[in-house]
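Hi W., the calcium ion complex you wanted:
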Amino acid sequence: MKTIPVFMSLLLVGTAAFAQFTNRSSVLDCSGTQASGGSFTNLSAAGQSGGIAVSGGGTYVNQAGFLNTFFMNSGLDTDCDGLADEADLDNDNDGLADAAELSGASFSPVTVTDLNEADSDGDGMSDHDESVAGTNPLDENALFLFRIRCNPMVNLTWVARSNKTYRVRYAATPMQPMTNVLSNVTVRGVAAAPWYVVTNTLTDASLAPSRVYAIDVLP
Ligand SMILES: [Ca+2]
Ligand SMILES: [Ca+2]
Ligand SMILES: [Ca+2]
Ligand SMILES: [Ca+2]
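Structure:
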């Protein structure tokens, strides 16, 4: 409920400036730095030492007032969680904070993602999950997947990232919990910068009649 005064104040600011605003999540606090969410007061440009800056990504300069003409979708709630984007630390609810999406620092190499889109490249894997897997969040062909082949031993093959460790678990049926660890695998191999992609295969030689597998990326 505390968010209502926030965007009401922002609407007031936009009207007074006769401008259109795009800035959806870069309310500045009273010291002129980017606010980290929560409750806000004194949000008008006049009463705010830092004003409101354009959230174009990267560093923020010239924080006194408005920059150019921009659109503000006041009260926008991208992830429909009841918290307006202006006060939401994670607009798209993908698990990666807005600040992290703007900085790109969760990826190596540093890669800026869309803070209003949970899956920036539309490959079915969220920006957060790609940050954990170490895959390129802007490449729809780069994501963490594995396939199973039987001949008759089971070969599990997945596109991995060199030097990451993966836990392979299994159960006899999909109804059972994945409590059995087949192996923890730290993937090595020749892989090219910047994403160090390498294909890895693990063999399950148990010859069990049926198994269901899961692979986790370990921190
Ligand atoms: Ca996010
Ligand atoms: Ca995102
Ligand atoms: Ca993705
Ligand atoms: Ca991707």
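Residues 4-17 form the longest helix (14 residues).

W.
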